[in-house]
Amino acid sequence: MIAATPDPTERSSLPAESIPRPCGDLASSDTYDVIVVGYGPSGLVLASALGRRGHRVLAVERWASLYGLPRLTHIDGEVARIIQNVGDVDRALQGSEPASEYIWRNGEGETLLTVDWSGESSGYAAHYTMYQPDIEDAIDADIRGQDTVDVLQGWQAVHLSQDSDEVTLRIRPWSKDRQGQTGQPGDGSDGTHPDDRTVTARYIVGADGANSFVRTSLGIERDDLESNDVWLNLDTEKLRELPERFAVSTQFCDPVRPNMFMPIGARRHRFEVAVLPGESLEEAATEEYAWRWFRERHGLGPDDVRILRQIVYVFSARTAQRWREGRAFLIGDAAHTMPPYMGQGACSGMRDGLTLAWKLDLVLRGFADDAFLDTYEAERRPHVAVIQATSVALGEIANLRDVEAAKARDEAFRTGTAPPPPPFPTIDAGYLAPGEQPFAGTLSPQGVITKDWRTGLFDDIIGNRINLVTSGDPASVLSRSQFDRLAEVGVDIVSTRPGNPWSVTDDNGTYRDYFAAIGAEAYVARPDFVVFGTGSMAEVPGLVDELLGQLRGARAWREQALGAQTPRVPTPRAQNSETAGADATVVSA
Hints:
The protein has 589 residues and is of the alpha+beta class. Helix content is 27%, strand content 26%. It is globular. It comes from Brevibacterium casei.
């Protein structure tokens, strides 16, 4: 059986009282600022971020409840900061654990590569293993508390159209029992159904997964990097403590049968194993197959773990040829899929969601024109492309089946001649300060600060808008008109220098250390934490003029974007996503 992701048999088997109640009421309005189709991680981030900014949002999701199972199992510190700004991050990470390393071994268990996941980033641990339902529940709860966001679960989009002013979406009630009927002709001669509802918005965003209705409706094709490995995924709950070897995420590059395991926070564990060519996918989806694998490979049985989810995936690496068509946008798996070997599939989608949200906010509030939204794809496509290509290259390492080639691979790692993976990408084009700006496009820091007797992480105290952060007194360099424009757009000004109206206390020295590291006295950070530009205090007025000027229509990003459409991407070499980057669920148990 081949079915669209997620498979109808793959939904949570939790008791009904533990599943979030579906939204059965129709939306309170037919007209919105933004319609979000899809209510997974990327759609949740987008809907919450827009709702927190006061915009009218409709989220449409065909499933009547949240997913309830852990496809996503890894996030980094940047994504933890995203969650901080769209929900209760403590609730989201309640079942998580910091991850210190990710080990790659050959078939004999020899270490080929150790990926260092230790340290801190963005105010959090650099990496976490975590439980996806906790994250979705936390963001969903935030959305449910927003008066400006309507959520229609159990409704599916069936027809999309747009003109120069708005988009129109026809939606229809959907349930698993009616699967296959949605989108088919109804009682009307034009294919409509008596239960259909029509809604309009200024913009629509497809966050509806690899088999996206929005992307298909727009006629957007995808480019395929042809990474089509087939793996069995087994998510489990630990019934007792497992041996110490299971505590660290480990990939086994075994030419006989590639496999891996990783924690899912503190109480759960993921095991994956390649399904080899010629093997029965149906057999791989049986409990007998799973327990045989657990027993023979890991020495585990039903007294050790309980299987929560068993499913066979075909991984993919595909990218939509356009991420925008008029007033419609694509984010997350609707725009790009990747194999799980970097654990960055859903992370990339959540970055998409926050980046598009604040750009839409500026346009909807009238502080940027519609063309500013083109910077979304100009920025996000090259960033994703590097992660995607690296994931494909790592997949070729993990899935190498030729024994002699695997020996050569092992020797290359043993002698240090294997090419290192590229550095994690930054934003190289789009809404950034021009000129010599070596730190533009990198991530800004988040430390602990105190302001007006309140102490906490920077975003909790200041908020999630554009920030101008200085080590000096802003009044010594900015004009009254610049202050007025910054306030009008919604730019927060912060100074680590005592004694001025914008002063905060840099409690743990994060900003002192950052200014010293970049050799600057000020920086501007966007709401997605990306540095717009840095400079001395004397250069702050010019930085502010550039920040505001690009919004007004001085499109400095256009020249950058031309080169960004063909990103520099490493060629995949023969050398875990947790959405899982799969286009099709093949078999589920």
